[in-house]
Structure of Spectrin alpha, non-erythrocytic 1:
Amino acid sequence: VQEAIVTSEELGQDLEHVELLQKKFEEFQTDLAAHEERVNTLGGDAERLQQTHPQNASQIHLKKDELITNWEQIQTLAAERHARLNDSYQYRFTADFRDLTSWVTEMKALINADELANDVAGAEALLDRHQEHKGEIDAHEDSFRATDEAGQALLSAGHYASEEVKEKLGILAQEKESLLELWEVRRQQYEQCMDLQLFYRDTEQVDNWMSKQEAFLLNEDLGDSLDSVEALLKKHEDFEKSLSAQEEKITALDEFATKLIQNSHYAKEDVATRRDALLNRRNALHERAQARRAALEDSFHLQQFFRDSDELKSWINEKMKTATDESYKDPSNLQGKVQKHQAFEAELSANQSRIDALQKSGQELLDRKHYASAEVTARMEDVSAQWKKLLEATELKGSRKGE
């Protein structure tokens, strides 16, 4: 059984197997050392037996020589087995070193192979794939540790190739470190790529939204009546609410872009350009919205003025019929007609404030340089002229009644 152990040709397929064989051999060596004292004892016993049993001295001598020969042979075979296992250990270390450094080279090429994505889905796929690479790197951690431990064991044993082993251990550590550094660099790039694609996607959504709002503001209809202007103002108020609701997203995009720029993102110049363009477009949109509201409010005030002037003109025309009525020429019930005329003059006097209010509102429109100033002026003059005619006609009628 012992001879089978020391004559075995099995040297292990990998470091783990070699270590197992070495452990078994170390157990064998411990057992062998325990038998050495017994062998020496048997040798001493043989010498004494030769003296006490001279008639069997020759046979005892042969058994003693056979024992010593077998013992020396098994020790020689054990030494040779130990040397072969050591050589195999160094060979397996070198093979594993070669396999690991080759794998590191392939993994680096794989990590560097991916181009940066052009959309959010692509960026997500890059990060997922990159995390898979990290999983594979982590899975090789045991191999790196086992190879390092094997190299350290060779150094501790004073192996004849210790310098070569030491160099390989240094190279392996450097290769592993550079692989981890490369993975981290690419992780940062892929995360920046994800941030960039999110920024591009969100800015595109806001740009599309602003295009629709700009199209809404192209409407130059200011209404032709109070009802139509009020309807347009209601639509504009809804539009302004939509602007306010979107403002939070634009502010968040502004802050996100600023953060990317401050963190030295690889596309910080493009991010800054897009952010500035977005904010400028937003500001222009707000200015146009404010201008549109101002125009609608001007239109609202104009339609109020038109309504009031139309009502006054209609009222003046009605009163003009009374002022130009010649029934006063009939002398019957003259006192009653005089009283009726006095009541009419009082009514006109009471409505002077309506004339004054219309003139005031018209003047306010003119002072604000209203876009319909010419028409406002014409209406003011028209109402004023008709009012003057009404007063003159009323005064003339009163004087004639007095006559």
Remarks:
- The domain at 192-299 is CATH 1.20.58.60 (Methane Monooxygenase Hydroxylase; Chain G, domain 1).
